[in-house]
Design a protein that fits this description.
This protein is α/β, with parallel strands linked by helices and 228 residues long. The chain has nine helices and eight strands. It folds into two domains: 163 residues, 3-Layer(aba) Sandwich (Rossmann fold), CATH 3.40.50.720; 44 residues, no CATH class.
């Protein structure tokens, strides 16, 4: 039925409000790249076609920055937001006038279960694991801000659950989704010169990086242990 999860054989497909389907992984990859850009840009008009219905746990600060980045994707539709601080809703309501607001994220997940497809968790760090796990228990794709968890146990708990249920997840390390960062990582994996990769990443800074690395190398050579 429209609006409910529909897993393909590889677990990557999500049925949305229209009769179309949208790849969860493709959506998260796109919004991850968008999150690397300046967040407070104007939101483009929604394009016709598939819609991914989204809920945010967190309404201001990093959460609002994430939402405005996600909104650059034409398939994005913000359905609901939860935040314990009622004073935090003003800016998100200005930009998303139709959004439904909740003060308790548990109530949001319960009442909006059939109305949302994905959730972002952009709250204080100590709540990331608890909220992320509960969202996945509701069958939702999740985007959790860094740090993902506070302990290795929490990290394994989320990882194992996502694998077991074949859910799409992403951690919000925005810079790692940018084109320049992925280019640099690709070069490093192929054994390319790391300084050149970083120089591409920070355009206009290649000479500066070279000077800094030369200085560091010279200082390191001077640090000799006694007897060497």
């Amino acid at each position: 039925m429209p609006g409910e999860l529909h897993d393909s054989p590889n677990g990557d497909t999500l049925r949305v409000m229209s009769n179309h389907s949208l790849s969860r992984r493709a959506f998260l990859q796109t919004v991850g790249a968008a999150a690397a850009a300046a967040p407070f840009l104007s939101i483009r008009a929604r394009a016709a076609g598939p819609v991914l219905r989204h809920a945010s746990i967190g309404a201001s600060g990093q959460a609002l920055g994430d939402l405005l980045s996600f909104a650059k994707h034409p398939a994005f539709d913000l359905v609901a937001v939860a935040d314990v601080d009622l004073a935090r809703f003003e800016r998100v309501q200005e930009r998303f006038p139709k959004v439904r607001v909740y003060q308790d994220w548990r109530e949001l997940l319960k009442k909006e279960q059939k109305n949302i497809d994905s959730v972002n968790v952009s709250t204080p760090d100590h709540m990331h694991c608890l909220i992320g796990l509960e969202a996945m228990k509701h069958g939702k794709a999740v985007y959790v801000q860094k740090p993902l968890c506070n302990t290795l146990h929490e990290t394994r708990l989320l990882t194992e659950y996502a694998r077991r249920k074949n859910l799409t997840t992403q951690m919000g390390i925005q810079v790692s989704s940018s084109r320049s960062q992925r280019f640099a990582a690709s070069n490093r994996s192929r054994g390319e010169n790391a300084a050149c990769a970083r120089g591409f990443q920070r355009r206009g800074c290649a000479r500066f990086l070279h000077r800094r690395e030369s200085t560091w190398a010279a200082r390191w050579k001077k640090r000799r242990l006694p007897g060497q």
